[in-house]
Design goal:
With 140 residues, this protein is of the alpha+beta class. Helix content is 30%, strand content 18%. Bound molecules: adenosine monophosphate and zinc ion.
């Protein structure tokens, strides 16, 4: 637990939330600033940040809970689709530094659009070099 983390405070009951789902490791609640109404956050009860330093076993439990919440949103709100997003670092838009997945119901009428500013590689060499840098970093 991190004493000044707002999501840890929600887990401890020191701050309120509108709870959607809970198990031993995971809590899900409504985002107070929904992109679309029904937008949920799914968090590990233990404080972790960023996702890359989280133990794999705890991440597995978290992603299973994300799928449960996603199914409940689909069935309960009859959504037409879903977005599942997760940010690491302020440069990526993260505001609360406690690992969390956003599960956002999408409807044909919701009016939301992502500012997905797709770029391109200069050439295939640049693309291959980018892939090589990532591939070389894989560890056993
Ligand atoms: P991120 O930008 O990925 O860190 O997202 C943080 C999210 O937490 C935002 O969408 C906020 O609306 C949401 N949020 C912040 N404080 C609370 C809170 N007390 N209860 C519910 N959602 C919150
Ligand atoms: Zn925390």
């Amino acid at each position: 637990m991190s004493t000044d983390c707002i999501f840890c405070k929600i887990v401890k009951g020191e701050l309120p939330c509108t709870r959607i789902y809970e198990d031993e490791d995971t809590l899900a609640f409504l985002d107070i600033g929904p992109i679309v109404k029904g937008h949920c956050l799914v968090i590990p009860k233990r404080h972790h940040d960023p996702i890359t330093s989280m133990p794999a076993s705890e991440l597995q439990a978290l992603i299973v809970a994300v799928q449960k919440v996603a199914r409940a949103i689909e069935d309960g709100l009859q959504s037409d689709g879903l977005n599942i997003t997760q940010a690491n670092g302020s440069v990526a838009g993260q505001v609360v530094p406690h690992v969390h997945f956003h599960v956002i119901p999408r409807f044909t009428w919701d009016g939301h659009s992502w500012n997905w500013n797709a770029q391109s590689y200069d050439n295939t060499d640049e693309m291959a070099e980018c892939a090589r840098q990532i591939c070389d970093a894989f560890k056993d």
